[in-house]
Amino acid sequence: NAGVTQTPKFQVLKTGQSMTLQCAQDMNHEYMSWYRQDPGMGLRLIHYSVGAGITDQGEVPNGYNVSRSTTEDFPLRLLSAAPSQTSVYFCASSYSAGSYEQYFGPGTRLTVT
Amino acid sequence: AQSVTQLGSHVSVSEGALVLLRCNYSSSVPPYLFWYVQYPNQGLQLLLKYTSAATLVKGINGFEAEFKKSETSFHLTKPSAHMSDAAEYFCAVNLNNDMRFGAGTRLTVKP
C-alpha cells in the first residue's frame, strides 16, 4: 500500500513551459485535491475532485488544469508556467469529502525561472 | 468563505512545558476543524479533527484541542512538550468541500 505518490519530486521550468504533476493513490479514495504551499501562507487549495469525472475549483485555480479519468489518478497541469507558480505542490486524498482525514503525498518542489 | 487564523507564526517552549497553539476560524456555520503536523520535507499528517461529536478532541502524540463555538476557536494543547514535537502545525477548516488552512505555526522545543 503506497498511499499517495507524487512525481516528480523536483522540477525546474522556464517561463512559458508546460508540464504535468502526477498524483496517484491506491486507497480507493473518492476525494482528491491539489494544494500549493508558500512560506507564510499555509496550504491553498487549487482544485479538487469528489470522484472520477468530477472536478471543481478551489481557492487559487488560475493557471492550472485538472482532470480525473480514474479513481486512482489526479494529474495537475500547468499550462504556461510563470514565476508566481514557484511553490511546493501537495496532492492529497480522502475516503470522502467533509470530515474525513486527508492523506498527503510527499510533495513536488517546482521552480519557474 | 471561511477562513482560519493562527496566532503566532513561531512558538518556542522548553522540553516538558505546556504547548499551546492558537487557532481561530470564521464560518457562517460550524465547520469541520482539523490540526495537521508537518515535519521537515514531508507532507502533512493528521493530528486530530473536530466533527461535532465532542468539543474536546484527543489526537495522536498526546495532543488535544477544544472546540469553543462562542470564541470560534480550536486551540491545540499538549501538557508536556517533547523534542520530537518540533515541527510546523496547521489548523484547517472544511466547509462544503472548501478546505482552508491557516498560515502555520512553527514549534521549537528547547532542551
Compact overview of the structure:
The complex is a heterodimer of chains A (113) and B (111). Chain A is mostly beta strands. Helix content of chain A is 0%, strand content 51%.
Which helices and strands appear, and what pairs or packs with what?
The complex is a heterodimer of chains A (113) and B (111).
Chain A: E1 4-7, E2 10-13, E3 19-25, E4 31-38, E5 42-51, E6 54-57, E7 64-66, E8 76-78, E9 87-94, E10 103-104, E11 108-112
Parallel strand pairs in A: 2-11
Antiparallel strand pairs in A: 1-3, 3-8, 4-5, 4-9, 5-6, 7-8, 9-10, 9-11
Chain B: E1 3-7, E2 10-14, E3 19-26, E4 32-38, E5 44-50, E6 56-58, E7 64-68, E8 73-78, E9 87-95, E10 98-101, E11 105-110
Parallel strand pairs in B: 2-11
Antiparallel strand pairs in B: 1-3, 3-8, 4-5, 4-9, 6-7, 7-8, 9-10, 9-11
What does this entry look like structurally?
The complex is a heterodimer of chains A (113) and B (111). Chain A has 113 residues and is mainly beta. Chain A is 0% helix and 51% strand. The radius of gyration of chain A is 13 Å and the shape is globular. Chain B has 111 residues and is mostly beta strands. Chain B contains no helices and eleven strands. The termini of chain B are far apart. Chain A binds chain B through residues 4, 31, 33, 35, 40-45, 48, 50, 56, 58-59, 90, 92, 97-99, 101-102, 104-107, and chain B through 1, 4, 6, 9, 32, 34, 41-46, 49, 51, 90, 92, 94, 97-104.
